[in-house]
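Consider the tokenized backbone below.
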């Protein structure tokens, strides 16, 4: 599968998120499209590796997102946890902006 339309640029606020479900080779993939404080777009798994809750409900700070349930932070570029209680990273996906269209390839995690 290749990159697919996830949303439009205007759907994602600065320091905010937009939750989408995309179709991957193995079925549906829940993705948080996140715009960091510098305005850069990222695509990260919407499911926290620690608490199995939606990361798109968390707070964006700098280039990280915080899980609202237990406070784990994840780097938006790598998916690596920046502090406990999470110890496992979450997948991040390539993002391409084509005009106003935000495209994500969930079959090629970074």
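A designed sequence for it:
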């Amino acid at each position: 599968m290749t990159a697919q339309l996830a949303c439009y640029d205007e759907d994602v606020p600065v320091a905010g998120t937009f939750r989408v479900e995309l179709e991957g080779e193995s079925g549906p993939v829940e993705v948080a499209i996140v715009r960091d404080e510098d305005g850069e777009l990222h695509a990260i798994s919407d499911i926290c590796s620690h608490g199995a809750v939606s990361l798109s409900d968390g707070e964006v700070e700098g280039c990280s997102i915080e899980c609202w349930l237990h406070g784990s932070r994840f780097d938006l570029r790598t998916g690596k946890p920046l502090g406990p209680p999470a110890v496992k990273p979450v997948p991040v996906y390539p993002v391409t902006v084509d005009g106003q269209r935000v495209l994500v390839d969930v079959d090629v995690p970074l």
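Strands lie at 4-8, 16-24, 27-35, 41-45, 59-61, 64-66, 73-75, 92-93, 95-98, 101-104.
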